[in-house]
Amino acid sequence: MIGFETELGLRFVRARRRNGFISFISSVSMLGIALGVAALIIVLSVMNGFQSELRTRMLAATAHVEVKGFDAPLNDWQAVDRLLRQHPEVRATAPYVQVEGLWVNGDVNKPSLVRGILPEAEEAISTLHRHMKVGRASDLRPGEWGVILGIDLARGLGVRVGEKVALVTPQGTVTPAGSVPRVKSFTVVGLFELGWIEADSRVALIHMQDAQRLYQLGDAVTGLRVTLLDLMQARAVASQWVSSLPAGLGVSDWTQQNANFFKAVELEKRVMWIILTLIVAVAAFNLVSTLVMVVTDKEADIAILRTLGASAGSVMQVFFVQGMVIGLIGTALGVVLGLVIALNLDHVVGAIESVFNVTFIDKTVYLITELPSKVLVSDVAAIVGTSILLSLLATLYPSWRASRLNPAEALRYE
Questions:
Q1: Average pLDDT of the chain?
Q2: Distance between the two ends of the chain, CA-based, in angstroms?
Q3: Are residues 406 and 300 both part of a single domain?
Q4: Is the full-model pTM beyond 0.70?
């Protein structure tokens, strides 16, 4: 059974007050808490989704860990590869050649990173095959001089699959007239789209043997790309290899390669948490004014309760229950609203974009093409806890004021 304090507090919430303004302010407080909680859930879910989606897209073009020479290519890369594969966290490895080049099609030229890959090994360490718009990685064959372009790079050059495009390399060919750039014609055999502008507009893939011949590397490679069983172990594995691998090798992991970006996203998430929590705080502390007015409106009822033997603590509990119920209902409504929107964000954003003819995500600015959303239980729990805590703090002063009411003063003019 519940005590009379709780029952009376719940009755005060349901009751139609004589002063309609108090009911209005109470509803506004509840609505404010709901909107604040919903906003927090939606924004943090978008931030989580943005971070997760971009990490996934980045890792489709990069590896969990990269091992390469400091100042020179790796000549005996097979021996290094065997050492890396001995680690229990390693799932797959693949050699690569990465250089810079200038793609030319008529009067149009575009610089890019040229990455030489082994197609059969690439599918084991990356998800590139899932992002192929046209063709497959296996279409790259040694000696056929084929290239797979990022879709934005291909669009900028104005080429399609099956057409020719020329690659100009920084390494020149020495002639009696001096050094001239080396130029090689490639056939476009595929297009990929990661949804990450840095890769889609600046990366071209060719067969590793073609890259070795074109850049005169012999059997050497730039380095080895490694995929782990758990990408979150990348930093720990990289640290182990720094001390255990032969001298002259550099080791970097995906958290180092994109450290500034992920730090910026994490900082932005924290700032947004603080800003939006202030919205919840303002709405929660509206409960103070609401409950103060309720206490003033119920002075006679409080005085009667005190004369019937109710203690100051019981009176305080009545208004504490009332305030907390308003806070809990507002929080619950906010959670429901926030989860519904966050879990259906693509439909909501699509509807808004079509109605108002606007674009929320410009991939040249945000690096991705869609507005992702990822709801974390830990975030929702933290939001609910914060909202309830703020509501609790907001009820303390009005409840205390009600408990200090003098029955004689309150009944003097009744």
A1: 83
A2: 34
A3: yes
A4: no
